[in-house]
């Protein structure tokens, strides 16, 4: 049995590496998440804010790497634990719903997993639902403060020198 | 333009005046007295910061390692902590640094050296969200910049509704000094000719966006006003001040707690203190925490102050013919209560027993957010290249009493696009549809929150805690302060009227918040050493001079008789200018 588990673990790491190569995950080393966890978070953030015909999504904006860096230095053990457990819950839900690992699932299957976690966003009850709220908040913050989020997605026009205020001049 | 060179401090010299505190009040006193040729020593408890390097107003979030956030060993107190815990709030927290709630806003890393470390500066008693800034310029480095005048609706409010005391001045007394402040520091705004919110001598106004124009037009039909935010910001520039630039509408004002690194927004160092240093009459000593006003035992008059060096802990005395307190409403009162002597057993200037009492401010919390549907999906606009959005002046109890409470409230509001789409957190869902919705709705929201007058009550007070001391061994303040029925009724009306105004304008209601924020949230504390004509019921005369000790002045918000509902900074500075002109005149005539 133990060798079986080992084989599966080895396969996962190999898969993670292949996945990383396929999706061009940032080269910087992960510090809080394990490589496997990182890939799951990376994929989750992209599902929340995907690339569309308007602009690149969370993956291109390096959202998972930013979240990882914050947790690497965070002293909030409670929140760190919530995230580790949360990633594990995603994996469990995937096995339950589709009988396979999250990263081995099709895009539609992965979205279905996230969809189930997002069900009670306003009043999250289960640990998985609570994790989704945390995950989304962190993703939103990291994405919309990134260069891609500010300039390409939101086309923010401010933080420039203006000679005249924009808007309606009152009589 | 770099800060001017500092003069050497000479503690053997008797200065014409020593000023405690370098914010709006202390800075203004320094400006006025030095302009009259008086030799002035200015003591500030905090440090002198290289402020442009602190603020970095135009840094993009992604160029900061934590997108402007605090380091992981730091903690900003939350709304819940202020409610469910008791002060001292930092006690027992594991974090290396604890700050007040304003450091929980965006860009906190840029202002963490401006606000105080809560661990070093505890206070006790009832719940109170006390925000303090200890550095040159104090809170003016990060203030909200709404610069409003008071009127006789405020100064004579007691005569109008029978509650409390009138101010010992009327609008005609202070109007020329509001004018002076407007011209010396610059203010942007639009003339509205309202008797209850007098116009300033405005520079070029900021502009309203389409959502705000829509609300303004609708409010006009209700007999109410929406005016562009009256900002203590120079939009046309100030020829007489080489330290400040005019506003370039950069949009960095979107960052809260923010500051303005080109000083278009007024701050005390570049607006008042550096020009005062250039007269050659001002000596500045930072890191000087004053803990006592010293008294001449023969005359009972003030002879100077005692202070500790905030870094070394060493004790010093400074001698002066006049002592001027501008340490903030609560710190000036604390200092008076701490200054006990044989001739002033209850604290200096406190024969009335009113020091620390009649403590008031603004009640906050109720707010409304709405959606302007026709703006959904419209091309991106630039809405935040301005100090702030708009102001809705008070409309309750003006011509006649029309509510189940007395006095009134105004709203501060904002709308349109911001650098960070705040609605992204509250927009449900995920995926491409979510992303598009956040994008499409970005410029379509409008919101406003109220600031209401808290009545001054003798029962609302602070005193000295006999057991707790700060990092420098100075006894701390203990709060005995709660909102009353009038504030609660007013808050309910704020929420109702906010909803009504948006609905009338055809703005779809997204949310109405009815909850009152913890006492102190407005950062507009006032009234702990009020002015008045009767020395038995007031601490200061109309020139902010102690009834008991004529060479002691208290020139900050503690002198205010009532809070009104207008933000106090411009009034603090106008009153201080008037008092210091009067003082200089008295000094010239040998009367002090």
3D architecture notes:
The complex is a heterodimer of chains A (171) and B (592). With 171 residues, chain A is mostly helical. Chain A has helices at 2-23, 35-48, 63-73, 77-98, 107-117, 127-144, 147-153. Chain A has one domain (2-153). Chain A is elongated. With 592 residues, chain B is an alpha/beta fold. In chain B, 22% of the residues lie in helices and 18% in strands. Chain B has twelve helices and 18 strands. In chain B, the strands form four sheets. In chain B, strands 1, 2, 7, 8, 9, 10 and 18 form a seven-stranded mixed sheet that branches. In chain B, a hairpin with a 6-residue loop joins strand 8 (288-295) and strand 9 (302-309). Chains A and B meet through helix 3, helix 6 and helix 7 of A and helix 7 and helix 10 of B.
Helix content of chain B: 10-25%
Largest interface: A-B, 47 and 55 residues
Mean pLDDT reading of chain B: 96
Strand content of chain B: 15-25%
Q: Which sequence of SSEs, written as H and E, runs from N to C of chain A?
A: HHHHHHH
Biggest sheet descriptor of chain B: 7 strands, mixed
Q: Could you state the order of secondary-structure elements of chain B as H and E? A: EHEHEHEEHHHHEHEEEEHEEEHEEEHEEH
């Amino acid at each position: 049995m133990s060798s079986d588990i080992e084989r599966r673990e080895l396969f996962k790491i190999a898969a993670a590496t292949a996945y990383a190569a396929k999706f061009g995950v940032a080269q910087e080393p992960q510090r809080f998440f394990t490589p496997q966890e990182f890939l799951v978070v990376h994929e989750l953030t992209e599902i929340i804010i995907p690339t569309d015909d308007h602009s690149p999504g969370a993956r291109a904006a390096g959202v998972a790497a930013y979240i990882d860096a914050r947790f690497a230095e965070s002293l909030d053990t409670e929140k760190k634990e919530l995230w580790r457990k949360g990633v594990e819950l995603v994996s469990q839900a995937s096995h339950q719903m589709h009988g396979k690992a999250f990263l081995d699932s099709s895009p539609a299957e992965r979205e279905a997993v996230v969809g189930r976690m997002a069900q009670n966003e306003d009043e999250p009850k289960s640990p998985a639902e609570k994790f989704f709220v945390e995950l989304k908040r962190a993703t939103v913050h990291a994405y919309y403060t990134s260069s891609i989020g500010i300039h390409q997605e939101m086309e923010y026009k401010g933080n420039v020198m203006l000679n005249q205020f924009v808007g309606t001049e009152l009589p | 333009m770099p800060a001017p060179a500092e003069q050497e401090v000479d503690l053997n010299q008797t200065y014409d005046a020593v000023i405690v505190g370098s914010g709006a009040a202390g800075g203004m006193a320094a400006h006025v007295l030095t302009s009259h040729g008086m030799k002035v020593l200015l003591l500030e408890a905090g440090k002198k910061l290289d402020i442009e390097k602190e603020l970095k107003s135009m840094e993009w979030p992604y160029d900061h390692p934590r997108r402007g956030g605090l380091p992981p060993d730091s903690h900003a107190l939350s709304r819940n902590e202020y409610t469910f815990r008791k002060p001292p709030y930092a006690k027992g927290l594991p974090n290396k640094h604890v700050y007040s709630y304003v450091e929980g806003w965006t860009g906190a890393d840029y202002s963490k050296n401006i606000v105080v470390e809560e661990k070093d500066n505890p206070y006790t008693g009832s719940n109170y969200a006390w925000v303090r800034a200890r550095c040159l310029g104090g809170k003016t480095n990060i203030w909200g910049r709404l610069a409003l005048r008071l009127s006789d609706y405020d100064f004579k409010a007691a005569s109008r509704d029978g509650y409390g005391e009138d101010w010992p001045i009327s609008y005609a007394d202070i109007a020329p000094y509001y004018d002076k402040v407007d011209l010396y520091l610059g203010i942007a705004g639009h003339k509205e000719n309202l008797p209850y919110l007098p116009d300033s001598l405005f520079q070029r106004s900021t502009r309203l966006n389409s959502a705000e124009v829509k609300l303004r037009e609708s409010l006009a039909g209700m007999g109410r006003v929406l005016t562009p935010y009256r900002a203590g910001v120079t939009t046309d520039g100030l020829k007489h001040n080489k330290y400040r630039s005019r506003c370039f509408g950069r949009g960095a004002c979107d960052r809260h707690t923010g500051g303005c690194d080109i000083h278009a927004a007024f701050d005390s160092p570049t607006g008042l203190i550096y020009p005062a240093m250039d007269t050659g009459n001002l000596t500045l000593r930072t890191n000087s925490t004053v803990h006592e006003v010293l008294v001449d035992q023969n005359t009972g008059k003030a002879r100077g102050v005692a202070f500790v060096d905030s870094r070394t802990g060493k004790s010093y005395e400074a001698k002066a013919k006049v002592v001027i307190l501008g340490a903030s409403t609560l710190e000036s009162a604390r200092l008076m209560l701490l200054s006990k002597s044989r001739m002033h057993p209850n604290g200096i200037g406190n024969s009335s027993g009113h020091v620390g009492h009649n403590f008031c401010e603004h009640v906050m919390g109720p707010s409304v957010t709405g959606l302007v549907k026709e703006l959904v999906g419209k091309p991106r606009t630039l809405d935040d290249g301005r100090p702030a959005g708009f102001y809705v002046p008070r409309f309750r109890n003006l011509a006649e009493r029309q509510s189940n409470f007395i006095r009134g409230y105004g709203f501060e509001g904002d709308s349109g696009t911001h650098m960070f789409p705040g609605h992204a957190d509250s927009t449900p869902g995920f995926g491409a549809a979510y992303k598009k919705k956040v994008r499409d709705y970005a410029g379509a929201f409008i919101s406003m929150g109220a600031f209401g007058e808290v009545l001054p009550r003798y029962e609302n007070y602070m005193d000295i805690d006999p057991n707790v001391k700060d990092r420098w061994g100075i006894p701390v303040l203990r709060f005995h302060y709660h909102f009353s029925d009038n504030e609660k009724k007013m808050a309910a009306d704020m929420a109702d009227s906010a909803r009504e105004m948006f609905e009338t304008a055809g703005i779809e209601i997204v949310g109405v918040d009815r909850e009152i924020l913890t006492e102190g949230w407005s950062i507009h504390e006032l009234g702990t050493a009020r002015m008045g004509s009767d020395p038995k019921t007031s601490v200061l005369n109309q020139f902010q001079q102690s009834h008991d000790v004529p060479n002691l002045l208290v020139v900050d918000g503690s002198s205010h008789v009532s809070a009104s509902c207008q933000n106090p900074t411009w009034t603090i500075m106008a009153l201080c200018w008037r008092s210091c002109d009067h003082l200089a005149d008295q000094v010239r005539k040998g009367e002090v």
